[in-house]
Amino acid sequence: MTLEEFKNLKLNYLKTNGKRKLNIPYKTTKEGKQYLDIYYPTNTNDLSNLPTIVYTHGGGWAAGSKMGAGNALFAKVFNALVKKGFCIVSIDYRLYTKGGNVFMRDCVIDSKDAVRYLSKNSEKLGLDTNRFFAFGDSAGGQIAQMLLLSDPETLEGDQDLMGYDYTMIAGVSWYGPCDFEKTSLFNHDDRPNFQDRFGPRILNPKSDTKDKLKLYREMSPINYLTKNSPPLLMIQGDGDTTIPVKHAYYMEKKAKKVNAPVEIIIVKNAGHNWREATPGTPINPSHEQIVQKTISFFESFL
């Protein structure tokens, strides 16, 4: 079995009755081609002008792939949403490696280029560019927030994809960070001598140190939040030591200040990836309830 055949087998966990297009190249970078997968609704034979959810996987901007859409809770969410009329797009983006030339900014730009590609080819793909949605977890949650809150023309990428507009309707972030400038948000227990964990994934060592603040702010979704922003649902665990719950509360505080539509759901005893922070004590809301709240949020905009 080839690698691509294995990928396709894995992705078949999304039960779309064959209504899918896999491994579509949306851009070519120095690191190679970047791909996306499209899963079409199962409740209709009219595959045109479809509301479309773009999924960006987690993995610390350094791991993971578009195959994550077919795993565990994500498969449950997406299998339900394709039955309700949504088109699901799962994308790959370049990944950070220590000593390499790919950084968080590249991950975000690739993801924005994927959405621009969808807009450019919306007619032949059957997508409604006025009904795009974003969803991601962890690092993908940050990227989803960036897709949702930043204007389509910001963070320029492939010039062949620039100039193709789209409208983001709403988005969901599972345990995704909202601000890198305020590094204390990552210090879950307020310990002294806290080290900035994700800085190396933002900053190119070759960059001028004076660019640090600019890059931190550029990669922080909270800086794009306004009263005119599309609705955002942030679901965070209160026992998460990787992306602490502080991020949800901080985004909520900013939202109230600017009168932006942000809703937060705090999952008790939940660590990263909805693991039990205290083993043996169930998280609340449960996995099933988190899945249903996510589905209901998107469905409310149909």
What is the topology?
Elements: H1 3-11, E1 20-29, E2 32-39, E3 50-56, H2 72-83, E4 87-91, H3 104-120, H4 122-125, E5 127-137, H5 139-149, E6 168-174, H6 199-202, H7 212-218, E7 232-237, H8 246-258, E8 262-267, H9 287-299
Parallel strand pairs: 3-4, 3-5, 5-6, 6-7, 7-8
Antiparallel strand pairs: 1-2, 2-4
Helix pairs in contact: 2-9
Compose a concise summary of this entry.
This protein has 302 residues and is an alpha/beta fold. The chain is 30% helix and 20% strand. The protein is globular.
Q: What do you see in this structure?
A:
With 302 residues, this protein is an alpha/beta fold. The protein has one domain: Alpha/Beta hydrolase fold, catalytic domain (Rossmann fold, 3-Layer(aba) Sandwich), CATH 3.40.50.1820. Helix content is 30%, strand content 20%. It has 9 helices and 8 strands. The protein has an 8-stranded mixed beta sheet, sandwiched between helices. Strand 5 (127-137), helix 5 (139-149) and strand 6 (168-174) form a beta-alpha-beta unit. Helix 2 (72-83) packs parallel to helix 9 (287-299). The longest helix is centred in the middle third of the chain and has 17 residues, at 104-120. It comes from Flagellimonas eckloniae. GO terms for molecular function: triacylglycerol lipase activity.
